[in-house]
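Query structure, 179 C-alpha cells:
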C-alpha cells in the first residue's frame, strides 16, 4: 500500500490539544502556489478558513467559513478567469469504523457528506480545507470570451449538431415550400 503524498496545506490537529477558541488557517504563498499546481489553477490568491472545533468523544466537528480566491483558465478560451468562494464549511472527523447512519431512515444533509476518517489521535484540518478548495473550483467555468473562442475554433452549439438539428432542417425546408 503506497503512502499518500504530503499535503500542500497541512495543519495537524491533535485530539488531546484541541484549542478552546476558533482556529484560523491561512495558506502561505508557497502553499498557495503548490495548491494551484495541484488543482491546475493559474494561481491561488487567498485561502483561509475560520473553524470552531467541537469534540464529542472521538468525533470532532469543525464548523465555520471557508474563504478563497483564485484564477483559473477558462474551460473554452484558456483566458485567466478570477473566481472566489465564501462558503460555510462543516467537517466531521471520525475514527475508522464509525457508523454515520442510524438504524432508522434519515435524510442526508450537506453536513453529512463531509465526514473524514482519521487514525490515531490526530487529523489534518488543513488538508480538509485544501480539499474544500478543490471542490469549490468549477472545472467547466467559462469566461466572457468563451463563445467567441468556440466560434473561432469552429465549435458549433449543441442545438446545431444535436439530435433535433436534422428535424430543424426538415422544418426549414417545409417552411420554404409554403406549407
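Result returned for the query:
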Amino acid at each position: 500500500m503506497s503512502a499518500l503524498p504530503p499535503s500542500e496545506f497541512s495543519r495537524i490537529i491533535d485530539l488531546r490539544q484541541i484549542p478552546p477558541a476558533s482556529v484560523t488557517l491561512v495558506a502561505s504563498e508557497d502553499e498557495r502556489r503548490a495548491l494551484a499546481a495541484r488543482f491546475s489553477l493559474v494561481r491561488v490568491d487567498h485561502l483561509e478558513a475560520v473553524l470552531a472545533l467541537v469534540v464529542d468523544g472521538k468525533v470532532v466537528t469543525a464548523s465555520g467559513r471557508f474563504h478563497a480566491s483564485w484564477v483559473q483558465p477558462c474551460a473554452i478560451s484558456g483566458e485567466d478567469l478570477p473566481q472566489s468562494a465564501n462558503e460555510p464549511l462543516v467537517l466531521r472527523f471520525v475514527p475508522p469504523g464509525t457508523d454515520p447512519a442510524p438504524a432508522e431512515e434519515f435524510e442526508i444533509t450537506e453536513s453529512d457528506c463531509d465526514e473524514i476518517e482519521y487514525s490515531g489521535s490526530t487529523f489534518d484540518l488543513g488538508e480538509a480545507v485544501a480539499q474544500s478548495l478543490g471542490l469549490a473550483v468549477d472545472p467547466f467555468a467559462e469566461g466572457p470570451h468563451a463563445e467567441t473562442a468556440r466560434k473561432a475554433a469552429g465549435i458549433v452549439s449543441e442545438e446545431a449538431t444535436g439530435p433535433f438539428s436534422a428535424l430543424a432542417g426538415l422544418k426549414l425546408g417545409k417552411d420554404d415550400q409554403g406549407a
